[in-house]
Amino acid sequence: MTTAAILLVGGMGTRLQPITNKSPKPMLPVGGVPFTEHQILKAKAAGISEIVLATSYLAEVFKPYFGDGSAFGIKIKYAVEEVALGTGGAIQNAASLLSPADQVVIFNGDVLSAHDLAAQIKFHKEMQADVTLYLTQVADARAYGCVELLPGDRVKSFLEKSETPPSNLINAGCYVFNRSIIDEIPVGRVVSIERESFPQLLAADKKVFGFVDSSYWLDIGTPAALIKASKDLITGKVFSAATPSHDGDSIISKDAKVADRCTISDGSFIHPKVVVESECEISGSIIGEGAVIGAGCKVIDSFIAPNCKIPAGTVVINNYLGF
């Protein structure tokens, strides 16, 4: 039984504006590489050999970086939505480019997780499911799609963003679909997989299961979460094959220039052509390519835009500058 994948990377990333004004969220640097690279290598590690990137906003920036996927050991294709079609419409649009497959893994383009994708695919097959949702538990489920399970892990209900969630299990943004189920999604119109398709599947008594995994999970949709994801990858709190190999708890690019008496720590990533002048403290931060950090600066848990110049003595904490 063959498995392919679709990666949903078409959103505008409005919660991350203005950081996403010139770059789509999935192409922002997280752990030293575009975020999408982490998900592509996760798919490859689970035995997937073909993935379609479902693009829309700034669609043209993906292919120059990822190409046909040969550099990453996986075949990559690109579907472009000229008009936003919602999650379900995007899946249907992208699926038209897939080679024949029995199952299709769907990734949300803004979730970093350590969940066992190969185990989720195996569970899907063993349960002879139509759809299997990756679920995780959170303290407050109101901001997420909430899922109730029956004994045996079959989904009882799916409620998208409710003020009174009946469960703390949430839709964690990775699904396994039988290809025949995708073929039932209406073509050429806006379809929400969460608000329309999942409730319809349950009403039709389709075999929808939940795969519960309590390992690391993070929605990177806000500036603070994006910075945390990058820090967690570099410090090793969560593993990704895409994170550049490094010693210590931070990464400094080879052609960055860091002056004497500087401290770079706690999962920071210093991109190429950065200049860090003397006596700076940089902790848990992303410093974009070509940025200049003036002498005596303190940059903590922040994101400095490429080519941004930070004046000497500036203190930046939990912020983003230059976008």
From TrEMBL:
Glucose-1-phosphate adenylyltransferase/Bifunctional protein GlmU-like C-terminal hexapeptide domain residues: 249-316
- Residues covered by the Nucleotidyl transferase domain: 5-233
Q: Name one Pfam family in it.
A: NTP_transferase
Coiled coil spans: none
User: Which stretches are transmembrane?
Assistant: none
InterPro entries given in the database record: GlmU/GlgC-like_hexapep, Mannose-1P_guanyltransferase, NTP_transferase_dom, Nucleotide-diphossugar_trans
Query: What is the recorded name of this protein?
Result: Unannotated protein
Species source reads: freshwater metagenome
Q: What is the lineage of its organism?
A: unclassified sequences, metagenomes, ecological metagenomes
